[in-house]
Amino acid sequence: MTQETVYKDAGFGANVPRGQKPAILVVDYSYGFTDTQYPTAADMSAEIAATRKLTDFARSAGMPVIYTTIAYTPLEAKSLPWLKKATGMAALMVGSRLVEIDAACGMTEKDALIVKHGASAFFGTNLAAILTGAGVDTLVVTGATTSGCVRASVVDAVQSGFNTLVPADCCADRAKAPHDANLYDIGQKYADVTDSADILAWLESLAKR
Questions:
Q1: Which of 16, 68, 108, 170 meets the CB 3.0–4.6 Å disulfide criterion with 192?
Q2: What pLDDT shows up at residue 52?
């Protein structure tokens, strides 16, 4: 029995309904993840470029665009359990360049910025309230890293009541194996994994209505 058959027989992999009020979430495309002078980063230029096509259009169509960054105070860097495991993340200090959103993303003053302290964009933040207040029914999740903060944010998006879409070419990781494995699992259990061309065509169709 193939892997695909196992998942299908178990009832996974159904299509996610697409609503009428989308938002784009850009997870942690900060310099600490995107500028390879830092050991925590990887080359994410292609994924950022693909993401920007979506955010530029969404913004022009009046659809919410929300960015996240991880930023720690010295006390948090010393005390949070996650940073005892992922010690490199402790470099993402408040006020440092590492926590600034990469300029290549094209973030504007109209966009929201969520400062988070863990993997999920929802945990301990007001993201769900922002989305609910804006009437969002479908969340497009992009960013870094696929196996970490993107996955955690996707799981919490679904658990917070939002239909969720993930364009694979807009998500980046430090290695291909965890990127691919997590996209597969996300696609089976939580969200529709698609690509930026599909998402852009959908956004354009909504804007014409």
A1: 16
A2: 98
